[in-house]
Amino acid sequence: MDAANNWAHEGQRHRFARLFDHGPMNKCCEGLKGRLKERLGEKPNAEDRAAATKLQEVAEAFIQLQDQRYSADYDNSRQWTRTETLNAIFQSETAISTWTEVRKTELAQDFLFDLIPIPRARVVPTR
């Protein structure tokens, strides 16, 4: 993963990569469009709009590929055709290429941070 590969301490990269969990990452990807809209407002500049569009493409590919991986791993009644498999490979390669185009933008860096499942403080209602 890009975030782990850029972690300054090479000996800790594997541990850092283990912070990422596919379930929360999927939810993060599902909520990306709303977070981008909130962050960019009604009239984002052209650079941010282009980066946001590409990030949404990456997030959508993650969701779809994660669903397909889950099906491949756990749905024993499903038989994957060669074409379906090659399409999934192509989709993942396209997502990686798209990510490479935007990975250094501030929006992409924020997205990486959002992928880490940080426990949120619980608010206990007062009685």
Notes on the protein architecture:
- With 127 residues, this protein is mainly alpha-helical.
- The chain has one domain.
- It has 7 helices and no strands.
- It has helices at 2-5, 13-17, 22-30, 32-40, 46-74, 82-102, 106-115.
- Helix 3 crosses helix 5, helix 4 packs antiparallel against helix 5 (46-74) and helix 5 packs antiparallel against helix 6.
- The protein is globular and about 45 Å long.
- The model has no long low-confidence stretch (mean pLDDT 88).
List key phrases describing it.
127 residues; 7 helices; mainly alpha
Topology:
Elements: H1 2-5, H2 13-17, H3 22-30, H4 32-40, H5 46-74, H6 82-102, H7 106-115
Short description:
The protein is mainly α and 127 residues long. The protein has helices at 2-5, 13-17, 22-30, 32-40, 46-74, 82-102, 106-115.
Q: How helix-rich are the residues, as a percent range?
A: 55-70%
**How many helices does DSSP assign?**
7
pLDDT averaged over residues: 88
Give the count of structural domains. Answer: 1
Uncertain runs are none
**Strand residues, percent:** under 5%
State the end-to-end CA separation. Answer: 45 Å
Strand segment tally: 0
Major sheet description: none
**Topology order in helix (H) and strand (E) letters:** HHHHHHH
Structural class: mainly alpha
Tell me the Rg in angstroms: 17 Å
Form type: globular
